[in-house]
Design goal:
The chain is of the alpha/beta class. The chain is 37% helix and 12% strand. It contains 16 helices and 12 strands. The strands form 3 sheets. It has a 7-stranded mixed β-sheet with strand order 2-8-7-6-5-3-4, with helices on both faces. A 3-stranded antiparallel β-sheet has the order 9-10-12. Strands 1-11 form a two-stranded parallel ribbon. α10 links the parallel β5 and β6. The longest helix has 19 residues.
Length: 456
């Protein structure tokens, strides 16, 4: 009996190589591409879910949750931001094929560096958020590319340089990410203290742009670090420093060795993404400290191929936007609210803050004519159904920092939440709204004010 001969792996690869060579030969490329159904190109449409979870079109309602119209800004505890359609399409295309993730990260870094006008010798890295960027960056400074150190972190016993200088006035929650690597924080309050704190075990000076209140400026931080042969790191934040988009190139241009930004805030990429820009050697060491590498401190902060593609598209859209035109869009949304409330004697105050996190639109009314407080408005908006407007924090939350644990036995009780300021003003942030949502917000505010008009 004749037996069917099954091709072995070696003969299969040889056949595949020959087919590919024929397919991509100059004379046959056009015709073969049209017929190459076996090599499925990108472009599958997104299909509707016909059964099970998501089939109603409201997955949150199916899970028993109330979705939120966001009038607060790009806050992590409510999901940061919404991705634009082009970003969702880039994510879909990233899902079409497998790819070597480390090669994708290198290519993404080059894309970031070019788009963000990075200094010569700098490149980028996509991380799982700004906090993840800090972890892999400080690990990189201490491990370099030594395998034994890469596997040891956060046990930095025997590492030559493990101390990071921070300014007391700039203290903020994300210093936890520095300590997470095993590094020791050295807190200083003045320029003289900073200089005195530098010794052979110092690895870096940390600077946080969004919370900076300290006496040593960013330029001085960079200068001092360079003079003493240590690194300087800038936390560019998520939404407080983007926009303006110019910070993407201005912060590295100051001379920081590494700068991180959020990809899931005003850049409007996936929530779990960050953008790290820095010197090529440091970025390579940071990549060694993160996923997909195993036995690394950054393995826990995995970023997928789909997210990398999506955040690159989001960053491109963000950099290429006309910021003046974007601001006019926000002004227009605020005007919709103004028009809806003017019949109640509510007036718009001048826009305050800068283009970014501190940009605020505020309205004011006569408390003798409208019986409403700021807190009552926010509570009423948050109670709106089936979609809430804004949100009310549960009792166990520490503001936007998220859930808090129970206090240690005998510890003082946590401070109660600070009530919203003002009794006859209302503020909101319009930049995270979808185009149709501002009309919903304006209509709901009109209902709330109409019910609060003092008779007579």
């Amino acid at each position: 009996m004749n037996r069917i001969q099954r091709p072995g792996r070696r003969s299969f690869l040889s056949s595949l190589g020959a087919a590919a060579a024929g397919l991509f030969s100059a004379g046959r490329l056009g015709a073969a591409t049209a017929k190459a159904a076996a090599v499925k190109p990108d472009g599958d449409p997104i299909v509707a879910i016909k059964s099970g979870l998501g089939s109603t079109g409201n997955i949150y309602a199916e899970l028993g949750l109330t979705p939120i119209i966001n009038i607060e800004g790009t806050i992590s505890i409510i999901g940061n931001t919404l991705m634009k359609p082009e970003v969702m399409e880039a994510m879909r295309q990233g899902n079409e094929h497998f790819v070597m993730l480390n090669e994708l990260e290198v290519a993404a870094g080059q894309f970031i560096a070019k788009l963000c006008k990075s200094p010569a010798g700098y490149t980028g890295l996509v991380t799982a958020g700004s906090a993840a960027s800090m972890v892999v960056s400080y690990a990189a400074m201490m491990t370099e590319d030594l395998e034994s150190r890469l596997e040891a972190v956060p046990d930095v016993t025997g590492f030559p340089r493990t101390e990071v200088i921070v300014q007391r006035q700039d203290s903020y929650p994300f210093e936890h990410q520095i300590r997470q690597t095993g590094a020791k924080l050295v807190v200083v309050s003045s320029r003289d203290e900073m200089l005195a704190a530098i010794h052979p075990r110092t690895v870096a000076i940390h600077y946080c742009a969004q919370s900076h209140r300290g006496p040593v400026s960013r330029e001085e931080v960079v200068s001092i670090a360079k003079q003493h042969g240590i690194y300087s790191f800038c936390d560019g934040g998520g939404s407080t420093d983007l926009p303006p988009k110019s910070n993407l190139w201005e912060y590295p241009a100051v001379g920081f060795d590494m700068v991180c930004f959020g990809g899931g805030k005003d850049v409007s990429g996936p929530a779990a993404t960050g953008i790290l820009i820095g010197k090529e050697e440091l970025i390579r060491w940071a990549q060694l400290n993160m996923s997909p590498q195993e036995n690394r401190i950054g393995r826990v902060s995995k970023v997928g191929k789909e997210e990398i593609c999506a955040v690159l598209k989001a960053l491109e859209l963000f950099v290429n936007q006309d910021e003046d035109a974007t601001l006019r869009v926000y002004d227009g949304r605020a005007q919709v609210v103004t028009d809806a409330l003017k019949k109640f004697g509510v007036t718009a105050l001048p826009r305050t803050g800068k283009f970014g996190e501190s940009l605020r639109y505020t309205w004011q009314w006569d408390a003798a004519k409208i019986n409403l407080t700021t807190t009552q408005i926010h509570d009423a908006l948050a109670a709106t159904r089936p979609v809430a407007i804004g949100y009310m924090l549960p009792a166990n939350y520490s503001a936007s920092q998220g859930m808090r644990g129970r206090p240690d036995p005998g510890a003082p009780a946590p401070r109660p939440a600070v009530p919203r300021k003002g009794n006859n003003t209302f503020s909101f942030n319009p930049w995270v709204l979808k185009e149709d949502e501002v009309n919903v917000v304006a209509a709901r505010l009109a209902q709330i004010f109409a019910a609060a008009v003092v008779k007579g």
